[in-house]
């Protein structure tokens, strides 16, 4: 099966050399930008300028790859925790700047890009970070399936079958009637769609360093579901 993932297998070596090869920060940000955005929306649900703040935060991280390069591999390491902590700190800085401007206080000095390393997040924070990351990974996996259906790799009806049956809980016979397909065909395409959705999830988990090569796909998907249930 083809994959649409562009993140390299040697992700820690990529992260470690970001300060020397900053152009590769785009690969990292493409992988994590959506989960960072979701995390900030969880933290700041009532902030009117949130979308602007999110874009400023993502741009700041992209322009300062040396901050991401501070991450260290190891058992239990979670690169997303460092990224989201950096993002949260920068979001608070941006919001303080906006508040000061609105209240005509002294202008904030320009940021020279030098920041202390992000501290380890509290356990209560890691739950929110995990959820934002899991939601993002699942959404990206769904997008992979839709893209495969669009380019002809999968049958065009598969995304609708998956969403209708798995998400909305609709009867497969009713979906077959709406799509004007034999029920047996819908069963086969639903099974094929589930296999490819699982493949997309596992690929993204593996690329994020959450599971090693060769892990059981069902166990890998269970990992994601357990996070979403919390």
Task: State the order of secondary-structure elements, H for helix, E for strand.
Answer: HHHHHHHHHH
Shape: elongated
Percent helix: 55-70%
For the report, how would you describe the main beta sheet?
none
Cα Rg: 21 Å
Please state the structural category: mainly alpha
What does this entry look like structurally?
This protein is an all-alpha fold and 230 residues long. The protein folds into two domains: 1-121; 123-230, no CATH class. It is built from ten helices and no strands. It has helices at residues 11-16, 25-43, 50-63, 65-68, 79-102, 123-150, 158-167, 172-179, 183-207, 217-229. Helix 3 packs across helix 5 (79-102). Residues 1-12 and 112-117 have low confidence and may be disordered.
What is the topological layout?
Elements lengths: L10 H6 L8 H19 L6 H14 L1 H4 L10 H24 L20 H28 L7 H10 L4 H8 L3 H25 L9 H13 L1
Helix pairs in contact: 2-3, 2-5, 2-6, 3-5, 6-9, 6-10, 7-9, 8-9, 9-10
Summarize the structure.
The chain is mainly alpha-helical. The chain contains 10 helices and no strands.
Provide tags for this entry:
single chain; 230 residues; mainly alpha; 66% helix; 0% strand; disordered N terminus
